[in-house]
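Changelog-linked ticket: heme C example.
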Amino acid sequence: MRKLLAFSAVWMTLAIAAQSTWAEPAGKTFTKDVAPILFKNCVACHRPGEVAPMSLLDYETVRPWAKSIRKAVLSRKMPPWFADPAFGAFANDPRLSDQEISTIKAWVDGGSPEGDPRDLPPKPAFVEGWKLGKPDIVIDIGQDFAVAPGNDAYEYFTVPTNFTEGKWIRAAEILPGNRQVVHHVHVSLVMENNKVDGADSKTTAFRTQTGQFWEVKVGLSRVRLDAPVVDDACANAPTELQNLSGFEEGSFTAMLPGKAPDVFGDKTPKWIPAGAKLRFQVHYAKVETPQTDRTRVGFYLASRPPERPMRRFDLRNRYFLIPAGAANHEVKRCYEFESDKLLVSITPHMHYRGKDARYELVRPNGRRETLLYVSPYNFEWQLLYRFREPIYVEKGSRMIVTFHYDNSPNHRGNPDPTQVVRWGDRSEDEMMTSWIEYLDAGPSSFSRQTVTETAARARPAGP
Ligand code: HEC
């Protein structure tokens, strides 16, 4: 009996082995095995006219890159993603599965054959320009702006929405008029009386900063070298300094290098009140020759008013000082939750010298957890990290944000390790910012009346 069992086990193993060999007689091919992976995970960027250097849509254009592709996926350099997998689970995590990686590896190791053209899946369809498809409403900066050669510049454009009634926005996409010069864009809401939905707007963050500790050149502000220094704003920080506790309200939508357009969701859209104006802050990069730009924002309307609108709180420490040559300079900022919130996403922001970013939460019962650890931080990829499920945070919890900066000569891309670096708009200066999307988890602070009035009127409207 025993013998028989052993025998049948061996036979079964053989049968299974034989079966899988029959299933894949000729190894992995482009058309059958690899193209589906590339179409799903790579071609959003790797196609003509997009950010990546080569198209991965056709065998002819993929084949010369086979070895690089193998290397880029094995090292997980591609698709770009910088959250340490030890912490948190993210809805927009683009990383390939181990299975997908081994398929690509096997295909390259097997000589990268094309395979049967009939196996090729249909190429994904893209709407040129707008990644999210045709917007319901498009608003531009109101002029063909002439970008002068020379320096980085921040330019501000305030334009009316002409909305006669408020609108719920499920997604927003900023389309640069001229990709060669537009480095990043923030679009904020401005009301005549500087109020949004009855609350004092706190969106001063995206204005030119002024005051005794600041200097301003061509719209670019920076903290003076002799301003007070606070690297650890979690310790007792001087209260006369701006916004080292509490939060600032975020911009409405942003375009940053490597970041996907903002999708707030049909169930948790953002609100633009009637009469609001849009304020574009456009960072124009240094160019050699004169250029023009007409940047636009596209809005996608939600189908109905939400129970909880999407909001954003921003945390900044503007008063750090990174010594020349410092290889691992730590800067901190804390935030005490003054109400219950559901955290939706986090976007850390530094410039060239950014090294890593850690977000920790200390609950009222003292439990400490890491929500997100971005390491290494990469200025070319300013990604948003959206939690798989919103994280419930009760009032009285504390968020601890810890960034490190590498101002040593070893840091690739460090513009000048001999400089002492402080906060400033230029990419050669630094920032310590976090943009955090959230929903109110307590009784909604959003005016019930507005919601009901809007409910009565809400229906998608044309441009
Ligand atoms: C979000 C946009 C984006 C996605 C998604 C993406 N790439 Fe890239 N890829 C880029 C950009 C931009 C570059 C050039 C800059 C760089 O190397 O970081 C690049 C570079 C590369 C390179 C050259 C790497 C090198 O070391 O020179 C390879 C190979 C590559 N990508 C393969 C892939 C593959 C395979 C996928 C999908 C599994 C993928 N990429 C997904 C944007 C993207």
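Closing comment: Example verified and attached. The CA atoms of residues 5 and 11 lie 10 Å apart. The chain has two domains: 20-119, 137-457.
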